[in-house]
Structure formats: structure tokens, C-alpha cells
Amino acid sequence: MSKSFVIKGNICQTITPSQLDLHEHAYAVCVDGVSEGVFDTLPQKYAHLPLYDYGDMLIFPGMVDLHIHAPQYAFRGMCMDLELMDWLNRYTFPEEEKYEDLAYAEKAYGIFVDALKKGATTRACIFATRHRYATELLMDLMEKSGLVSYVGKVNMDREASEALTEKNADISAYTTFGWINAVKDKYKNTLPILTPRFIPCCTDKLMEELREIQMAYGIPVQSHLSESKGEIEFVRFLRPDNEFYGDSYNEYDLFGKNDDINTDVKTVMAHCVWSSDEEVGLMRKNGVFVAHCPASNMNLTSGIAPIRKYLDLGLNIGLGTDIAGGHSESVFRAITDAIQVSKMYFRMVDESVRPLIFSEAFYLATMGGGAFFGKVGSFLPGYQFDAVVMDDSVLRHPQPLTLAERMERAVYLGLDEKNIAAKFVSGYNII
Ligand code: GUN
Ligand code: FE
After folding, report:
1. Among 130, 198, 238, which is best to mutate for testing ligand 1, by the most ligand atoms less than 8 A from CB?
2. Between helices 169-183 and 204-217, what is the axis angle to 10°?
């Protein structure tokens, strides 16, 4: 399929958090991979383009996963009996050690990329492991998939198993330089992102070196922040001089914009379950993205991130599946989970904080996280043409349904895990 075409079907999107934008039997126009908008009748000037008619199917913008660990896909849905720090030591680090072995990495990453490609995700921010060559292998596979991603070789030089910990900060930095130089111009859709695992695993010296690397290459940053109480306590012990956890990234200019030194480091922090007012204030000021990972926060007994508060404050927020803290790579599932945990927050924690509604959570999964990738997450003119087409007739029902009902049901019933009829990324038809 060429990169200029028209698709026809039931187009469902959110261009603001507060409401659905629905168009029955409408046209979405793609010119050179970029959306021209949605039209109820096709303007004459597009009449010459190839038209693909998907009948009564649903058409959504592609889903954006702002936080997922590729090497953990192998043990998704298992090992759910521990909290974060013990879970990392007992299950996660031993699994990640295996990626020293490229044959294992190829097999495991092949399964991961295949799964991502088959679902509704079109873009993702991905953690690999600390291993350079396995990370490059993952990037090769991601590029072949046609999906768009940021992929990070993880940096970690303390507080993990001996086999997984990099010997020292210099070796970690040296390996990272080698990796970035090898991949930075190699791909069209697969870009490197600096990935300090989290403060407990990174010495001060390593953080210094990562600051230098970020400044040298200007690449974005991803990490974890204020996920669990045990982790936060440990960070307080490791870095007593920082007023709050996020300050320890900010100290090394790895925390969004910094007007004092005129830098703008695109940054996404996963979780932010327990962020203090000061931390939230700095994220807001610096434009740091929050990757909200509700399934992981439930599975690891971390808590409930107050996303409604963050939304009201105007933070940048997207959704993450956080495989394997989260057990499913489905962003539809993350939408449902985000709504459900927000209801529990309302009922159990604070009844002045109203739960998320469906359109808000759908917005987070599309335009919210999409902003990390530029103009992404809707069919508004000028946006990257990322679309998923689904046949919801497999979800049987006896009564007539409105398009709004069909959209909500497709998400709640996990249609992305059942039946993707077509998928487009920047206008490329990858399914
Ligand atoms: N914090 C540091 N590493 C990890 C990880 O692999 N998963 C989660 N959920 N949190 C982390
Ligand atoms: Fe994570």
C-alpha cells in the first residue's frame, strides 16, 4: 500500500481528554504518511487516492506504550508474589542475565517483537538489558517490524546480581558510547534512549557520565521514579542530600527541561505512584512525561498513582504496560486498568479525586503518550498516520450498539488481543 491513501470505516478517537470524537462510515486521509484529517464525505481533491474500505470495522489511532521491558516478556504472567525490590532480585535480574547469550536474546526478542507487532501498539519506549549486543539485536528486530520505538541499553553499576551489574561506571559509559555510535544513524524508526535503570542501580559516578553522554548526543531519557515505598526509602538512604527522588535525576540534568542551563532533555519516568508535591511540581515545570503503569502497580503491590491530580495539573502523561511488572502488553488493557485503579483511588483513598472516564484514559493511551513521539495519537491534520483497524463482530451481542458503546467495549473486552485487521504506522501498512 502506498503512503498516500484513504481508509474508510468507523473512526474513533479522542482529540481532547473529555470527549470521544466519533465518525461513522467516515474517511481518514493519509498523504505521505501524515494525516489530512477525518471527513464524513470525501473531498474531491482526495478522490484520486486509493481507497481501502473496511466496511463496518472500527478504526482507532495506534496505541502508544510509554514503558515496557522487552527482556521481561519471557516471564510475563508469572512471579507475582513479591514487591518491587524483592521481585527484581528474585526474578527479574536472573532473567535479564540471560541476554548475555545472543541465541537466547534472539529467540526471546523475536517472540516479544512479534507480539507487539500483532497488537494495537504502534509506538513504544522500550527497556532492553545492560547488554549492548542483545540490545542491538532487539533494535534490528524492532526496525524490521515497522513499529516506531525508542530502545534503551540499560545502565546499572550497583545493587543487582553480580552477573547483571556492569563492573563500574567507566565500563557502563564506554559500552553506552559504543552502542549509541553503532545505532544512532542505523535505523529509520528505532532510536536510542538513555536508560539509567533507576537510582538504586546507578552510582553517582555513572550518573555524572550519563549526563556527559546525554549532552554529547542530545538523546532522550527514560527511567523509573517513585514506584514503591521500599524503593523510595532506599533512595533516601543512598542520596540523603536530595530533597526528593526526582531531584537525584535532575541533579544530573536528566529530568526534562532545565531553564538555568537552557537544556531540554525529553524524559519519561515510569510510575510516579508516590511522588511528593515538590517532585510533581518539578516534573510539571520540566515537562517530564509520566508513564502510568496501573497493572504493574497492582501486581507489585506498589500503590495507585493519582493520575487525576496529574491530569488536572497539566502534566504530560501516557500509559505503560511495564511488562513484566504488568502481565499484558495490551495497551487496551492498560486503559481499562487505569480507569479501574482510579475508581479504587476515589473510593478507598480520596473521594474528592474523581475517577478517570473512558475518554480520558483513551486519550492518555493515544495523544497523551503520543506527544513523546511528536504529533502522534490522532487523525488530526499534521499527525503521523498511525491506525489500527479491528473487526468487532467477533464480540457478539443481541442488542443494537452505538459507536461509542462499540469503542468502549472493544477496549474493555481486549479486541486488540483478538483481531487486528490492519495496522498502519506513519502510513506504512504493517499488518
Ligand atoms: N525499577 C527498576 N527496574 C525495574 C523494572 O524492571 N521493573 C519495574 N517495574 N520497576 C523497576
Ligand atoms: Fe519498568
Report:
1. 198
2. 20
* Local mean pLDDT, 10-residue blocks, the chain (431 residues): 89 98 98 98 98 98 99 97 98 98 98 98 99 99 98 98 98 98 98 98 98 98 98 98 98 94 95 98 98 98 98 98 98 98 98 98 99 98 98 97 98 94 98 95
pLDDT of residue 1: 53
Residue to mutate (ligand 1; options 80, 90, 92, 228; most atoms within 8 A of CB): 92
Residues 6+ apart with CB under 8 A from 411: 332, 335, 336, 358, 362
Mutate to test the pocket of ligand 1, among 95, 224, 245 (most ligand atoms within 8 A of CB): 224
| Predicted model pTM | 0.98
Q: How far is the CA of 270 from the centre of ligand 2 (A)?
A: 6
Outline which parts of the chain fall under CATH 3.20.20.140: 63-373
Please tell me the number of the ligand nearest to residue 87's CA.
1
- Looking at CATH, the fold of the domain delimited by 5-61+377-429 is given as Urease, subunit C; domain 1 (2.30.40)
- Which residues form the pocket of ligand 1, taking CB atoms under 6 Å from any ligand atom? 69, 84, 88, 92, 197-198, 224, 227, 296, 322, 325
63-373 classified as CATH 3.20.20.140: yes
Write out the three cell numbers for 140: 534490528
Lay out the sheet containing 51-61: strands in order across: 34-39, 19-31, 5-16, 51-61, 387-390, 420-425, 428-429
In which residue ranges of the chain is CATH 2.30.40.10 found?
5-61+377-429
Number of other residues whose CB lies within 10 A of the CB of residue 414 = 16
Per-chain residues with Cβ under 5 A from ion ligand 2: 270, 322
pLDDT at 259: 87
